[in-house]
Specification:
By secondary structure, this protein is of the alpha+beta class. It has four helices and eight strands. It has an eight-stranded antiparallel beta sheet, covered by helices on one side. The longest helix is centred in the middle third of the chain and has 21 residues.
Length: about 200
C-alpha cells in the first residue's frame, strides 16, 4: 500500500473537557513555541460551528491537526498530507508518533493540564487516499501486518483487536481497541521516542 496520507485519531477521555474554540489559542501557542516537531505551521482555523465537523484545526505543510468532532466523538486527529519516508511500517510508525506527541503536548499544556486527557484504549486509523488505499478487503489485508506490528510496539503488554468494515463509499478505516490505556507518553517511549516537555 503506497500512500503516506495516513490518519490517526485519539478520542478525548472526557468528551466535555474542552469548551468550543478553547483549543484555538493552544494551537497558536504551539506555533509560537515551535512545539510541533518536523512540521512547518501555517495557520489555525476554527470550524466548531459545523456539527460533527473538523472542529479546530492547526494547519501545517506536512499535516492537518484537528480537534475533530467526527462521529460525534471529539478527539485529536492527525491527517498526513506530505510523503513520509520508509516502508509502510515506518510510515505508520511516524504518523502514530506525531499523533501521540501532539496529544501529550496538549495534555501537558498549562491551560489544559489535569483536565484534558486522550484515551489510548481506542484509536482510529484511516487512509485519506481513495486511489492508493481504497476501502477494500484487499487494502485491509495489505495494511494489517504492518499496522499490527506498529501497535504491538506501542502496546507491548496489551491485546489489540482490529475492526474493519468494508464500506466502499467511505474512506478506508480501521478501529483498534486495546485492553489497557497506557497513555500517550508511555506509548511514545515504547516506540522509542522521548515525550516532549511542555
Amino acid at each position: 500500500m503506497d500512500s503516506s496520507k495516513l490518519v490517526f485519531k485519539l478520542f478525548l477521555a472526557d468528551p466535555t473537557a474542552l469548551k468550543p474554540g478553547e483549543i484555538v489559542p493552544v494551537f497558536h501557542s504551539l506555533i509560537q513555541r515551535k512545539s510541533v516537531p518536523d512540521h512547518m505551521p501555517i495557520d489555525v482555523t476554527d470550524y466548531e460551528h459545523v456539527p460533527d465537523g473538523p472542529g479546530s484545526l492547526l494547519v501545517t505543510h506536512e499535516a492537518n491537526i484537528h480537534l475533530d468532532h467526527g462521529l460525534g466523538r471529539p478527539g485529536l486527529m492527525y491527517v498526513r498530507k506530505q510523503p513520509l519516508p520508509g516502508d509502510l511500517k515506518n510510515r505508520l510508525r511516524s504518523a502514530l508518533r506525531y499523533t501521540l506527541e501532539i496529544a501529550h503536548q496538549l495534555e501537558q499544556h498549562p491551560t489544559l493540564a489535569g483536565r484534558v486527557k486522550f484515551s489510548t484504549r481506542e484509536l482510529l486509523f484511516r487512509i485519506n487516499d481513495r486511489l492508493n488505499g481504497p476501502n477494500t478487503p484487499e487494502t485491509f489485508a495489505a495494511v494489517r501486518p504492518a499496522l499490527e506490528e506498529v501497535l504491538a510496539e506501542a502496546y507491548p503488554i496489551a491485546t489489540i483487536a482490529l475492526d474493519y468494515t468494508h464500506a466502499p463509499q467511505e474512506l478506508f478505516e480501521v478501529s483498534a481497541k486495546a485492553d489497557t490505556d497506557p497513555g500517550a507518553a508511555a506509548m511514545l517511549e515504547c516506540l522509542g521516542f522521548l515525550p516532549a516537555v511542555a
